[in-house]
Each structure stands twice: as C-alpha cells, then as structure tokens.
Amino acid sequence: MISLEKEIYLLGIEASGLTSAVCLSREDQLLGMVSLNIRNIHSRKLAAITQELLDHTGLKFTDLSGIILSAGPGSFTGLRIGYSLAKGLAHPLNLPLIEVPTLDIWAHQNGRTDLPVLSVIDAHREEIFCAKYSWQENDLKRINDYQLIPIASLTKYIAEKTVIVGGDLLKLKAEIGELLGERAVFPYPLEQDPDCHSLCYLGYKKFVNQETVSANDCEPMYMRAFKGVM
Asked: Is residue 50 a contact partner of residue 82, using CB atoms and an 8 Å limit?
C-alpha cells in the first residue's frame, strides 16, 4: 500500500532516445531537471546527473517515494540503461517504479487540443511506433492500442485532421506531410525531446492510483525484438 501521508518526491528518468534527462517532482510539480541532448552518453552521464540533481535540490535517495521511467518504445540501448539505473536505485530502497509510455509523454506535452492527436516515434525500417489520443476536457485519453506500423499505412490509419506529435518529427515531418496532406497538423515549433514536466505529471497520476511495479517486475516497452538497429 502506498502512503500519501508524507511529502511525495519522485525521481524521473528519461533515456528512451537521444536525451539523457533526470527530473525531480514534489507530487506533480517539477522541482528541477538536468537534461543532455548528446548522443551515446546515457551509460556515462545518467547516474552522474541523477546525483547532481539531488545535490542541487538538497534531497537524498531516501527522501524519494518512487521512480518514474519513460518506458519506451524507443532506443533499445537507452531504455536498458534507464531501467538498469532505476532498478539499481529502487531495489535497496524498496521503492516502487512507475512506467509511463513515451508515446503518452509526447502526446501530453503538446497540450490540449480539440483535434485528435497521433503520437509517433521513429522505429526505423520505414516503420513507426504510434498511438492515437483525444483530450476529454482536461484529461488525455488513449483511444487505441500502441502500435508498430509501416509509415506508408498512415494514409489508411488517419482519416481526419489530426495533430501529429512525437520524437523524430524533424526527420519524419516531410514524409508524413506528403502522405497525409491537409490531414496532418504539426505543432510549431517542433519539440525535440520528451518533456520532464509531462513525465512527472503522468507518473504522479499513476503513483496515486497505485499503478506501480517492483524492480523485479518491470521491463521496457520495446514493442519488437531487437535486431541491432535501434
């Protein structure tokens, strides 16, 4: 049973793609973050910036109530590193882990809209990870399963004007725009990394709803077998 009587501090870890980021929240309010958008540094920097952030905020690992993970899909290597760090911290402290699908983070961080939202992440090999969402008042609702589809099939998948958000849009925008035409609405400017505030907000909601897992019972959301590309 999760206790909500003490002040809740949650550590968030983002390593699903290029970005190495850690953040701290008190309940659903972001206290601070350290983020590096430098390729191939997760293994060297993620633990170090975690300690740096705790030092800046004056908190200790024993002050934490749980650890939020950007759960994927995304980079196989990045996800494994993020999960390894989270499990290594959680196990000795008996902390719960909160897994937030990365597609949810991308959909949430672009804010409320009256249009449907499609969150996408480049899966390489002319494929994308994706999911559809809609805003119902102030709540973001996912309206279909997380999917791995050929990018060309978007012409059948999207039938109405839809806001397209997510990782790798700088790379994917031209192709998606050509496929969907006026059905594709892109935010401006395009976000380049998952937002720590959305990670903390969605993670806190899961935490209070007791949607947590133990360090022994969680795995990244890979969505396909590893073949040495991602």
From this structure: no
Mean pLDDT, range 64-79, rounded to an integer? 97
Query: Both tokens of residue 84?
Result: 């390894």
Tell the burial category of 204 from Cβ atoms under 10 Å away from its Cβ (0-12, 13-18, 19+).
Answer: buried
Report the alpha-carbon distance of residue 180 to residue 186 in Å, rounded. Answer: 11
194 prior amide bond cis, ω within 30: no
Write out the two tokens for 78: 């990045």
* DSSP conformational letter for 2: -
**Global confidence as pTM:** 0.94
Domains present along the chain, CATH in parentheses = 9-102+194-208 (3.30.420.40), 103-185 (3.30.420.40)
Q: Which two tokens stand for residue 102?
A: 């990365």
Longest dimension (CA), the chain: 52
- The dihedral of CA 214, 220, 225, 229: what is its sign? negative
